[in-house]
Amino acid sequence: MSAPRRAPRRRIDGVLLLDKPAGLTSNGALMRVKRLYNAEKAGHTGTLDPLASGLLPICFGSATRFAQFLLDASKRYVATIRFGVATTTQDADGEVVHTRPVMLGRHALVNAMARFVGPQMQLPPAHSALKFEGKPYYDYARKGIEIPRTPREVNVFALRLLEWNSPDAIVDVECSKGTYVRALAADLGEALGCGAHLAGLRRTASGAFEVADAIALERLEADDDDARLACLLPVDAPVAAMKRLDLDAAAVGALLQGRRPPASAPDGQYRAYGPAGFLGIVEAATAQLRSIRLLPDS
Fold first, then answer.
1. CA-to-CA distance for 219 and 228, rounded, in angstroms?
2. Measured distance CA(156)–CA(34) in Å, rounded
3. Which of 84, 23, 62, 67 shows the shortest CA–CA distance to 217?
4. Strands 53-60 and 209-210
5. Is residue 141 a contact partner of residue 126, using CB atoms and an 8 Å limit?
6. Is 81:189 a contact under the CB 8 Å cutoff?
7. Do 42 and 12 contact (CB within 8 A), yes or no?
8. Cα gap 67→42, rounded to integer Å
9. Dihedral of the alpha carbons of 232, 234, 237, 239, in degrees to the nearest 10
10. How are strands ordered across the β-sheet holding 268-274?
11. Would you say domain 75-206 falls under CATH 3.30.2350.10?
12. What phi and psi, each to the nearest 5 degrees, are found at residue 235?
C-alpha cells in the first residue's frame, strides 16, 4: 500500500518567535517548524548553538526579505560560565583542556567583567561556522588542523552578574551581532587566571523581540493549523523599530516602476506603507525617495 501523498507546500508570510529547546540545531528547529506549517519558504535569523536555548525568530515567505534586519540586531543572553575548566570548544560540548583552582571572589569577578564591556576585538572560536577557504572552521578543528583566525570587532553593550556560586557565574549579556558568548566566557576565564567555559546559554532577546513572547516547539507541535497561523507576526515585524513613512498611490507607483518620487521626510531609511499596506524599505536622500527592499508583490 502506497504512502499518502504529502500536501503541496503553501505560501506562508509572517514571523514566528520560536523558543528553541537546547539539544537541537537552529537548522533542525527551522526544518521542524517549516514542516509544521507546510511552508514553501522559511529561514531563521541568527544561529543558536545546539547547547543553547531561547529566542529564534523564523521568517516565512515575504518576511525573509527583511530577515537581515533581525540578523543585524543586537542580542541578549543569560549565560552560565563555569570557571576553572577550559574546553576545546569553549563550551560544555568540548573536551577538557585543563583545570585550575578557582580562587575567585565576587568583587574580582565583577571588576574583570567590567573590562569586557564596550567595543573590542574578539578571536572567533576554532569550532565555529565561519568559513576559511570555503570550509567551516569546525571542519578543520575536528581534524586537528590549525588555520589562521582573524579577530573581529564586536561590542558588548552590557555584562551584568546575576548570580555567583563558585565556580559558576550566571551573567546577563547584551551584545552586537557576531559576538561569541563562549569566546567571551573563555577570555574572561583567562583574564582571571583560572580558565572558563560556557556551561549554558539562553537567548532572551533579539532586537525588540523577547523570549517571553516566543512559542515553545512542543506547544507548536500540539497546536492545530489555525492556532499555529495565529502565532505569526506580520511581514513588517522585522523592521517595526524603523520610523514609519506613509505614501500616496502616486509615490508607490513611482517606486514600483524604479523611479524616485519626491521625499517630504528627513534623510534616512523608513518602513513604507501605501494605500494597500506595507510596501517595504525606502530611503530618503536629497529630497528624493528610493527603494531599498520592496515586497515582491506590492
1. 9
2. 33
3. 23
4. unpaired
5. yes
6. yes
7. yes
8. 10
9. 150
10. 244-246, 268-274, 277-285, 288-294
11. yes
12. -60, -30
pLDDT digits (tens, 9 = 90+) for 49-74: 899 999 999 999 999 999 999 989 99
Q: Please name the residues in contact with 214: beta carbons below 8 A apart, sequence gap of 6 or more.
A: 17, 18, 19, 54, 55, 56
CATH fold of 242-294 reads: 2.30.130
75: cell is: 542580542
Q: What would the pLDDT profile of 159-197 be if each residue is shown by its tens digit? A: 999 999 999 999 999 999 999 999 999 999 999 999 999
Residue 14 corresponds to which cell in the numbers above? 509572517
Measure the CA angle with vertex 89, ends 86 and 94; round to 5°: 75
- The separation between CA 17 and the C-alpha centre of its own chain, rounded to angstroms, equals 11
Q: Catalytic residue positions?
A: 49
Question: In the structure grid, which three cell numbers stand for residue 185, read together?
Answer: 566566557
Using alpha carbons, list the distances in angstroms from residue 120 to 44, 115, 141, 165, 179.
Answer: 27, 10, 24, 28, 10
Read off the C-alpha cell for 188.
574572561
Going from N- to C-terminal start, the domains of the chain cover 14-73+209-237, 75-206, 242-294
The x, y and z cell numbers of residue 92, run together, are: 560544555
Cα distance between residue 193 and residue 258, in whole Å: 59
189 three-class SS = helix
Residue 199 C-alpha cell reads as 556551561
